[in-house]
């Protein structure tokens, strides 16, 4: 049973609004994962809100965070009840910083606030004891001893989770309440109306005396609790960090995630990713009875170009890469068999058509703004730039020139850039080239039936793996073939084929 079960939700003090804004994920995959984390308490939610990616000068702090997560994952894998034991505490934990603020402001605490503080102290003491019994020793998580708070608010030394101003706090209060009970018995037994009214007046005066004495007791309790405010605040922050770490652990165990290797950004080693997955896309595919094809890629400093057929999975591959790289900077394990990367100063994604209806920007206009933001970032650090079909919203002739220029810019910037494109003729000196394999069976044809069946047939014949290419590669031209598989109108297809070479490309 929750300690504070008698308190209405409105009594819970929310974190103050002047604190920094919630972290905005750079990639849709990370945004989805953060929204799916199992975090119960406001302390944990505040820790999540304050989450920020590690920068290049915070390599050791990031490595420490990952080492702590590895300790947690090992402990969880060895103890099936690991999450239940701690999770039950966080489900009941209330945010008491409002009550602590009032104490520090010199306000006399009411019974609701004292109940909040008592419940907090009992739960955090339980969490501290469990943490110590588990043998966990994490530099970022330490709990102060606040058991004296429980003793202050539990004078009769019971395990009752409620709170009231106990007679043990004051002999005078004890006497007033005893006298009040006697008066109430007399009132019940008295048959003389005038005498009953006199007794009721006496009781009313006693009630006022009782309230005054209770106020003095609460005032005294507030003064006693003042010296423990700092420790309670510390424990609240520690609890939030620990709950966030627990959520990361649960995620890592659920998906069998891997601890990444991170090295300094100025060390010119390749980013290596083996068998990455995207859990959001994987879940969607699983719902349709399909499987996610793991993505493997290696990026050197400079530019990597990615080509492939339409519907071949280039966008998913790029988003999967960007998602896992961003997770590393946030101190998460990755969805990959192996993942090694430099600690980037930034991760920047240009994806989609870039349409910004709110600002009235055209697709291309929005792309150019994103481009300007990206180039500015490269002037101040080494990052990962992920560009999906950049400049697709302008005419192909100019679009290919923009992609060529972007590739050359990233090649000489010192950052790691990967660009997915359909444009022919993009060649960057010393760049790397990848291609989605695409259609496994070039001879596959329409199977007939409804559109869903046709799409399923197409997907079943796609190979979404990435392969390295030489710099004399050719962009695949599978659009005509895909259109035929999807049973596009025969008259339209006849017209279309007139504009293709006799080879049928």
Keywords:
single chain; Rossmann fold; alpha/beta; six-stranded mixed beta sheet; 49% helix; 505 residues; 2 domains; MutS, DNA mismatch repair protein, Chain A, domain 3
Short overview:
The chain is of the alpha/beta class and 505 residues long.
Describe this structure in words.
The structure is a single chain. With 505 residues, this protein is of the alpha/beta class. It has 2 domains: 9-167 and 203-247, MutS, DNA mismatch repair protein, Chain A, domain 3 (Orthogonal Bundle); 256-497, 3-Layer(aba) Sandwich (Rossmann fold). The protein contains 17 helices and 10 strands. The strands form 2 sheets. The protein has a 6-stranded mixed β-sheet, with helices on both faces. Helix 13 links the parallel strand 6 (346-350) and strand 7. It is elongated, with a radius of gyration of 32 Å.
Question: H/E order of the elements?
Answer: HHHHHHHHHHEEHEEHEEHEHEEHEHH
How would you classify the helix and strand content by structural class? alpha/beta
Spatial separation of the terminal alpha carbons: 69 Å
- The overall strand count is 10
Shape verdict: elongated
């Amino acid at each position: 049973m929750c300690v504070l079960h008698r308190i209405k939700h409105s009594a819970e003090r929310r974190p103050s609004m002047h604190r920094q804004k919630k972290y905005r994920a750079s990639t849709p995959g990370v945004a989805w994962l953060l929204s799916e984390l199992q975090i119960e308490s406001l302390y944990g939610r505040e820790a999540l809100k304050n989450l920020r990616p590690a920068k290049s000068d915070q390599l050791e702090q990031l490595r420490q965070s990952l080492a702590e997560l590895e300790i947690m994952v090992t402990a969880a894998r060895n103890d099936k009840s690991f999450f239940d034991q701690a999770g039950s505490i966080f489900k009941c934990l209330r945010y008491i910083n409002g009550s602590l603020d009032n104490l520090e402001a010199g306000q006399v605490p009411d019974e609701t606030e004292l109940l909040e503080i008592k419940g907090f102290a009992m739960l955090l003491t339980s969490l501290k004891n469990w943490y110590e019994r588990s043998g966990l020793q994490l530099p970022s998580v330490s709990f102060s001893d606040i058991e004296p708070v429980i003793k202050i608010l539990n004078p009769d030394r019971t395990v009752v989770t409620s709170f009231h101003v106990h007679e043990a706090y004051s002999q005078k209060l004890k006497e007033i309440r005893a006298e009040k009970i006697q008066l109430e018995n007399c009132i019940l037994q008295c048959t003389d109306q005038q005498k009953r009214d006199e007794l009721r007046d006496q009781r009313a005066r006693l009630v006022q005396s009782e309230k005054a004495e209770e106020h003095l007791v609460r005032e005294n309790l507030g003064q006693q609790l003042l010296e423990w405010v700092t420790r309670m605040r510390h424990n609240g922050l520690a609890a939030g960090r620990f709950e966030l770490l627990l959520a990361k652990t649960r995620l890592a165990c659920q998906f069998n995630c891997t601890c990444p290797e991170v090295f300094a950004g100025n060390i010119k080693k390749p980013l290596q990713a083996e068998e990455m997955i995207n859990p959001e896309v994987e879940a969607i595919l699983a719902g349709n009875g399909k499987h996610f094809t793991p993505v493997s890629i290696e990026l050197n400093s400079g530019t990597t170009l990615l080509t492939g057929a339409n519907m071949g999975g280039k966008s998913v591959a790029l988003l999967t890469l960007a998602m896992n790289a961003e997770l590393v900077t946030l101190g998460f394990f990755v969805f990959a068999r192996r993942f090694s990367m430099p600690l980037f100063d930034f991760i920047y994604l240009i994806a989609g058509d870039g349409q910004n209806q709110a600002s009235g920007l055209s697709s291309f206009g929005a792309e150019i703004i994103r481009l300007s933001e990206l180039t500015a970032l490269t002037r101040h650090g080494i990052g990962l730039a992920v560009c999906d079909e950049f400049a697709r919203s302008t005419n192909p002739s100019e679009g290919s020139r923009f992609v060529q220029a972007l590739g050359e810019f990233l090649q000489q910037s010192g950052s790691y850039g990967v660009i997915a494109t359909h444009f022919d003729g993009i060649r960057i000196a010393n760049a790397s080239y990848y291609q989605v394999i695409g259609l496994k069976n070039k001879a596959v044809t329409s199977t007939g039936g409804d559109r869903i069946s046709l799409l399923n047939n197409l997907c079943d014949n796609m190979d979404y793996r990435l392969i390295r290419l030489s710099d004399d590669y050719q962009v695949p031209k599978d659009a005509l073939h895909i259109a035929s598989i999807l049973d596009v109108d025969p008259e339209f297809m006849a017209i279309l084929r007139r504009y293709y070479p006799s080879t049928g490309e």
